[in-house]
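Researcher: Please translate sequence to structure tokens.
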Amino acid sequence: MNIPVKAMLMTRDLRISFRMLHRSCKTAISFKRFCQEGEEVQLADIVFGYPLGDNRYAVLEKKEIENARPESKNTIALDRFVNFFEADPHYFEKTYLLLPDRSEEAYSLLRAVMEKTAKAGIGRMTLRTRERPVLVHYYRQALVATTLRYPEEVSDPQVYQAIRDLPRPREEEMELAMQIVKSLSGDLDLSAYHDRYKERIEALVSSKMDNAVAVPEKKKGKTPAKSLMEALRLTAQSLK
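Model: Translation complete:
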């Protein structure tokens, strides 16, 4: 069955972001790319090294990397239906709201079946240049698609010796701890929690509105070499 849908990201990142400015002239800070020999490098002269250990790299061209990426498809291919409650939430990555795209009857049917059976469809989904396992499931009168991490991307706590060596609690300790948990138990209400750091920054910004500055246009001139970490971040961004 083919059910056309429109996918939109269901979550949003509301973290505070800043732009670095020069204290004295208030111009924005920008960066250039420099190799470790101190020479400025243009994007066309950058190749990518896959680390092999002992400071050895397999050298790859950007085009070679792009050719290895999966073909971007506008489809979610479902392989089978599984019990949604068997899915480990630690594998969940991003969730997309699926809206019917002139497919109201088929969409409504699949939604009703998933709601009634508590089943989810699992398959593959390619977003931009990365293929991900995906779980399509019912949520609040809608169908949503949650991309999943691969098994090797989730650590198993039992591989750590510090976890395996933990002592067993004594019975009296367990009884006391159980009493505390029982006394503090209640319903889950996420609305009781707020991003207090974001609220404090917004209040701080409001207090400085009268002294806000206009950032001048970037001027041409020499830019000091940036750190290796900053160069690596820019290189990683160029691969996206």
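Researcher: Any highlights?
Model: The first strand starts at residue 5 and ends at 9.
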